[in-house]
Design a protein that fits this description.
It is a single chain. It is built from 17 helices and 13 strands. β12 and β13 form a beta hairpin. By secondary structure, the protein is of the alpha/beta class. α2 crosses α3, α11 crosses α15 and α12 runs parallel beside α14.
Length: 410
């Protein structure tokens, strides 16, 4: 696009608002002037823009950190644009080399299908399913065939491909790079050609592949897409990116009470970053709320609002209200109304064995560590004796702030 196209359609207040929504929380929007021109054209002509998010279904479960890019898709969807949820069933068989220092084994067709179904079901908690176009890139990649693949490969040079950090680093280190890995960014870029994409979203680690789409669209005589990258969300610790391996995550399939309590556990500083990237409240609402907190309002009020919004998104408003009440009960030392009931045999039963058998600790050694830390209560009394044995009867056992069980020993 050129300057003439930027000025071809008027930049109205609605276009400026759409631009502000597009920019919210983003890492990069490239090139901004082209996206503004596309928004102006769409506003003037009434033709929605085509916005693409490609996902390789390599893992079936997603956490709140994964929804940052989905939230952006939903914001653009609410502006009236067409959202394309592209499942990379073909590219999954190649395996994305992004950020990897070794060749990744490809998935089977059965794994891809199963993961894709689960992933889309979870993504639909954020996206509006009725306004989402679901596509699989095997639609156009399989018919391409050997001849088409060779013609596509001729559109890019090896020298340019080796500019990718992961390829460059692996080559310097003498680590193997398979020829098929060069096909991945080419095929992802070709997806944009096939879909006539106006904007492609991705994480910061996808920038090379996203730019490939722009290049190939120009090669095929299309108007090049813009690219929008979103930052990685810091996890519960506020330091590392949200990750299951770091155990600082909130899974979107977690129960409402755990989800609510985990959001409340984040720092007051991190809360505002989460508001920007995870909340659907307007920036004006968030700014007003932040001003109230800076003026003396308890930051916990704002955190509760965020926790309820996120919990309601993946459960319901009623579940979020119940989770708030549950949290209040626990914070006052109360026992939740709905706790698991467990029946065990072997009275008198040692406290370590009880915690393990009741599913409150993964092992007796971990149970001992929890007792040493003062994190175990029986009928509201802190347990300090690791050798404690409990006779026949029923006890309410608590580990930490959130784990409870009603244990009957026979």
């Amino acid at each position: 696009m050129n300057q003439a196209s930027v000025t071809k359609y008027p930049v109205t207040d609605r276009v400026r608002e759409a631009m502000a929504i597009s920019m919210r929380g983003t890492e990069e929007l490239i090139p901004q002037e082209d996206w503004l021109a596309k928004l102006a054209r769409s506003e003037a002509t009434g033709v929605p823009l085509r916005i693409k998010l490609g996902l390789d279904p390599t893992a079936p479960d997603i956490h709140v950190g994964h929804t940052v890019v989905l939230n952006k898709m939903r914001q653009l969807q609410d502006l009236g644009h067409t959202v394309i949820f592209l499942i990379g069933d073909f590219t999954s068989m190649i395996g994305d080399p992004s950020g990897r220092n070794s060749t990744r084994p490809p998935l089977t067709a059965e794994q891809i299908k199963s993961n894709a179904e689960t992933y889309y079901k979870q993504a639909s908690m954020v996206l509006d399913p009725e306004k989402t176009e679901i596509r699989y890139n095997s639609e156009w990649s399989d018919p391409l065939g050997a001849r088409g693949m060779i013609q596509l490969a001729a559109k890019y040079t090896v020298a340019r491909m080796m500019e990718r950090n992961d390829f460059h680093d692996r080559f310097k280190a003498g680590t193997s790079i398979s020829v098929h890995e060069f096909l991945y960014p080419l095929m992802q870029g070709y997806d944009s050609v096939a879909l006539k994409s106006d904007l492609e979203l991705g994480g910061t680690d996808q920038k090379f592949n996203l730019l490939m789409g722009r290049h190939l669209q120009q090669e095929y005589g299309q108007e090049p897409q813009c690219i929008l990258t979103m930052p990685l969300l810091e996890g519960l610790d506020g330091v590392e990116k949200m990750s299951k391996s770091k155990n600082n995550y909130i899974g979107i399939n977690e129960d409402a009470n755990s989800m609510f309590a985990k959001v409340l556990s984040i720092s007051d500083t991190l809360m505002w970053r989460w508001y920007t990237l995870l909340s659907f409240r307007s920036e004006a609402e968030i700014a007003a709320l932040r001003k109230e907190v800076e003026g003396g309002r308890n930051p916990k009020d704002a955190k509760v609002m965020l926790a309820k919004e996120i919990t309601a998104r993946f459960h319901s408003v009623q579940a979020a209200d119940a989770a708030e009440q549950d949290f209040m009960n626990r914070s006052k030392g109360g026992v939740p109304d709905d706790i698991p009931e467990v029946t065990l045999s072997g009275a008198p039963l040692g406290i370590g064995a009880l915690l393990k058998q009741a599913g409150l600790a993964p092992s007796t050694s971990e149970a001992s560590r929890l007792i040493e830390g003062g994190g175990v209560r029986v009928d509201s009394s802190v347990v300090s004796d690791k050798g404690l044995k409990l006779d026949r009867g029923t006890y309410v056992v608590q580990v930490g702030k959130r784990k409870f069980a009603k244990v009957t020993i026979g």
